[in-house]
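User: My collaborator sent over this chain with a note saying "see what the structure looks like." That's all I know about it. Can you take a look?
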Amino acid sequence: MRYSIIILLALAFAFSALGQGEPHSLYGTLQNSDSSIPSAECIRFCGYFGTQSVCFPEDSGAGRIRYLESSGVWLVRADIFDPAPTSGEVVNIYFWNDCNDDGAIKNVTIDLAVPSQNIGSVVLGEMSIDEAEKPNVAGLKAYPNPFNAVCLIEASSSVEIYDISGKIVDSVAGKGRFVWDATTDTGEVLPSGVYFVRETATGAVCRILLMR
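Assistant: Without extra context I'll predict from the sequence alone. Here is the result:
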């Protein structure tokens, strides 16, 4: 009965956020390992498709990405990506609870035969996010960590990415938010392992873990 009520709330939230039934959406419920509903002040989550990303709370808003604390319902509009994913393609969704360092990953295969996809209940605690999520130097962040597709890097300057041997495998010029797809500067796909992100201006370093 409780689950049915949650699903009804999810559906209501999904359609109110979309304003119509046609744009494709991904939604579900979010809970802590003790079955409690996470506070909106603690929750962050991002949807990734290719090199694109959209994150809550910074990109939140009607028709984009939402979280409803009263019911634990989250929603990501799949068609906000450009190009939008087609049936059979995968959108990766990463969830973090900054208040207890729990996280979770959902890899969703798009099915455009339905107007929206109910992913069900996502239980936080599948992975720890206690390392690169809270870097010692303000301004340098890399998340999710671990990651298996793409990593979002926020930096105040250009960055260099090193493998465990100290070899530079990639570099990104500029500053702000970068999406790294775990390939070298020549397009070579990198294997699972530990990598280091270094700000060229400040020397700040954080460690990230790639798990394919």
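A starting point for your reply to your collaborator: The chain has one helix and 16 strands.
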